[in-house]
Amino acid sequence: MRIIGIDPGLRLTGYGCVEVRPGRWEPQLVEAGVIRLDGREAVASRLVELFADLGSILDQLAPQRIAVEKLYAHYAHPATAIKMGHARGVILLAARQRHLELVEVGATEVKKSLTGNGHAAKRQIQVAVQAQCRLSERPSPPDVADAIAIALCAARRGAAARVAALA
H/E/C letters for each residue in 47-116? Predict the structure, then answer.
């Protein structure tokens, strides 16, 4: 099963696709990257571009499941959550059109899953992804590492559920 993790943004949207093979506990990284959007463009234009670019990636990688970080709004930055909501909406639409199973994971769950610390810093996530995926260097920008981490967390959540169902 292929799972794609998405770290939504209106300037940078990271993606990371992992594959879970029967009989193997650890997912394998298939591909990761970032969709770069021009911050000088109107939000509506960036959303159209995000939809088109993400659609191409989903069609090429053919995942069965998409994992997206749950929306979090910090009281000091409500506009950020609103902008993130726009990008998430486009991502959810692209996923629904392709009949992908949706998994939403919280940021603290992702961080704890990879590092053991639900409040890990971006650099810690990059280092953990590098080690767990056996990469020669840290994924950059951090949005790529975050997306891979989201995919890994969703894959492990699914594996844990399968093991629990067997017990």
Answer: HHHHHHHHHHHHHHHCCCEEEEECCCCCCCCHHHHHHHHHHHHHHHHHHHHCCCEEEEECHHHHHHHHHC
